[in-house]
Amino acid sequence: MAVRTDVDGPAASEPRSGTTTRVQRLREELLNTTPEVCVERARYMTETYREHEADPPVLRRARALARVLDKMTIFVDEGELIVGNQASRPRAAPIFPEYSIHWIENEIDGFAQRRADVYLVRPEVKIELLETVLPYWEGKTLYDRVMAVLPGYVLKSQHMGVISGRGNITSGDGHIIADYPKLMSVGLEGTIAEAEEAMQALSPYRAVDARKRAFYEAVGIACRAAIRFAARYADEAERQAAQEAHPVRQAELRDIAEVCRWVPAKPPRTFHEALQLAWFAHLITQIESNGHSFSMGRLDQYTYPFYWADIEALRLSEEQALELLQCLWLKLFSVIKIRPWAHTRFGIGYPTYQNVTIGGLDRSGQDATNELSYMVLRTIRETRLTQPNVSARYHSGTPERFLIECGRTVKLGFGMPAMKNDEIIIPALLEKGVRPEDAYDYAIVGCVEAAVPGKWGYRNTGMAFLNMLKVLELAYHDGRDPRTDVQLCPGSGSLTDLQSFDELYAAFLQQLHFYTLCHVEMDTYGDLALEELVPDAFCSALVSDCIARGKTIKEGGAVYDVVSGLQSGLANVANSLIAIKELVYEQGALSLEEVQHALDTNFEGKQGERIRQLLLSAPKYGNDLEEVDQLAARVLNDYLEEVSKYRTTRDGRGPIGCAYAGSTSNISANVPLGQPVGATPDGRKAGQPIAEGVSPTHGTVQKGPTAIMRSVTKLPTIKMIAQLLNLRLAPGSLDTEEGLRRLVQLLRGFQALKGWHVQFNTVSTETLLDAQKHPGKYRDLIVRVAGYSALFVTLDKATQDDIIARTMHAI
Predict the structure, then answer these.
(1) Contacts of 417 (CB under 8 A, 6+ apart)
(2) What is the chain's Cα-based Rg?
(3) Which residues are CB-neighbours of 637 under 8 A, at least 6 positions away?
(4) What's the CA gap between 650 and 656, in Å, rounded?
(5) Cross-strand partners of 393
(6) Nearest C-alpha neighbor of 448 from the set 471, 415, 404
(7) Cis before residue 117, ω within 30 degrees of 0?
(8) What is each CA distance from 355 to 299, 445, 561, in whole angstroms?
């Protein structure tokens, strides 16, 4: 393989040791690019939908995808080794009008003036969208369908701020990992052959087989279009090679052409082909669907045979392999999607939640850490990009060296890798009916959710958030929202009417059960509309057992189907309940009337502040205090017991599971979810952010990270599908070998306690405050937000302030 490491062009402003000039230059170009809106996908989708209105939705959609792939602008940038673009320009966001258009019409003039996640809109793009594209979709979108059937009380619960479910119905679903190992063995030609063979076995006399036939035809259309899409890049690379004067770059372009002629049609033969195949599959699922959290699975496992074969045959050096991997990272960073502001504020910082999983056990229960696992860590350190997320699986047999290298990566401040504990996640999956060999092979999708690669349905995380602290506020206001004066679930009276802790907790459960129903209904109506209106043949073809069953993922084609709710504010609820329990019901230090008045007046005046300080002095979750920790566990367990009563829309249609579980992954939603909540009995003032994930509330931890981990591991983690713990470490904690060893000891202790997930920020408060004042000096400063990392200066100030307020710990 010809590789040129001195491609002409300006070097990056901050060269990274180990990156080639090529990677530095391409990285710099991406970071210097302001995201913009691309109209091409919307144009070609709209044209096809107009022409094929009588087609079954799955066929019409496959034909539309094919037209997009056949006609959209493609490019091979100077120096690229991995090729394929999502839109007409790098870091441009396609428009998906079939999901929702009203927010585009309402917000397009302000895309470039947003306080975060800014997008430029070229005048010609705006004209085409408003005059040609969007009018066709009026009354035909996914959002229109859901709004037409969603019960009014569910909409009101969203307006109150108890739930937020706009994500699915404006932006689609995602949270999917394709079956990359299978793709590596059969290529898309094998997938087409599988669909054709299944179609041959259909009966002409059965209605169900007629539906299957449309699906199989759609699979063929989409997969053949993907092969043509790759061939377009081969043509472009050959065109450039014919004009290239530099012999090394000319050879690279010819290599690219050969690779794209071979994959994705056929199984890869080399490491370069394996990475390019994985990228094409990943990219096309992103073009097909508007969802986010499309993830790459266990990249270090399914590409390793190709890497090792190339190394053994002397076709590739380790440094050449590293450069190819870093070129893939640049491509993953280039993927971007624009969301309505109402959805964007729940995930600030241009996140797409793409995840790569490394390390862990293999399907037979043996340690799977390999050279590529370390190479991914090196790639994170040297490229310094926010996407993709990287999750490192670990267990009692994980090599010490691997954990040390994870620590070396963490200390640079990117918040990566996030650490995932095999010794709780695998048992949690087994409890949900996952087969042992599949549970051992899990990967992380999106932020922190565990799934079986290539066998799990869309959206193992529901996009409806449940604001637990708002639920508690309703409970002590007789079920009536003090902000909107709406009462959907009549309660048991105001706080002054609840004469015992048992009465207070029963009032909370009454509201929790009702709003859990609203939460599930929001997901259910979205799922039904997604199944009918936007069936995705290409992605379904890459997930088992969709072809075997003749069903899309949404119809029940996947092997497994478990969806988790998203809960926020757990720590606030536990702290609020324990404060009232101890200070009012047990000690009599405060009366119910005093607390109610203080909350209703947002702790105004000296008396209000005195009451607030008493509430703040009560025991707080995160300090390894048994009573409050067990109360947090009780709240979460009661929610999990309730949500597990519900079934997904795929129930009885093939997949294993079809149940709801829990997830405390809430991205940056804890900031906007705090806005509609008044003052609360934990001492929090009105409108302030609520607690994120299973992390303690800011400023309430007095005993350090070990105590936090002990509190977290008392939660009913085995019943969940995802959990998120953020820890902020003092700068310098990991600067020495001794500091790295202490981090490894901390991780080993968390593993023994059966902790699910932990991730770290290591940037100093002084640096973050200076970055707020002088953003131009810190344009590539990366922080961990929640289940994703972001460039700090791209975040809005409220999210920045929330990160700065996190308690810092020394280890």
Answers:
(1) 358, 377, 380, 390, 391, 392, 406, 409, 410
(2) 26
(3) 716, 719
(4) 9
(5) 359, 420
(6) 415
(7) no
(8) 10, 6, 19
What digits encode the pLDDT tens for the residues 14-60?
A: 434 567 999 999 999 999 999 999 999 999 999 999 999 999 999 99
The better pLDDT of the pair 365, 460 is held by 365
Residues counted in the chain: 811
The 8-class DSSP code of residue 730 comes to P
Cα 51 to chain centroid, rounded: 35
The residue behind tokens 């091409």 is: 40
Confidence class of residue 538 from pLDDT cuts 50, 70 and 90? very high
Cα–Cα distances (Å) from 313 to 266, 271, 276, 308, 309, in that order, read 21, 12, 20, 8, 6
Is the per-residue pLDDT at 796 higher than 70?
yes
**Tokens 């367990």 sit at which residue?**
637
449 carries an active-site annotation: yes
Tell me which residue of 341, 640, 648, 645 sits closest to 523, measured CA to CA.
Answer: 648
Residues 633/634/637/638 CA torsion (nearest 10 deg): -160
- The Cα 730–Cα 307 span in angstroms is 38
Going from the C-alpha of 292 to that of each of 40, 286, 387, 543, 749, the distances in angstroms are 19, 8, 12, 17, 33
- pLDDT tens digits for 705-755? 999 999 999 999 999 998 999 999 988 899 999 999 999 999 999 999 999
Residue with tokens 């959206």: 459
Q: Which two tokens stand for residue 791?
A: 């460039």
User: Which tens digit of pLDDT belongs to each residue from 211-228?
Assistant: 999 999 999 999 999 999
Spatial separation of the C-alpha atoms in residues 494 and 503, rounded to whole Å: 11
Looking at 38, 327, 406, 447, which residue is catalytic? 447
In angstroms, the CA 221 to CA 112 distance is 37
The one catalytic residue among 128, 217, 449, 531: 449
CB atoms within 10 A of CB 319: 12
* Distance, C-alpha 15 to centroid of its chain: 29
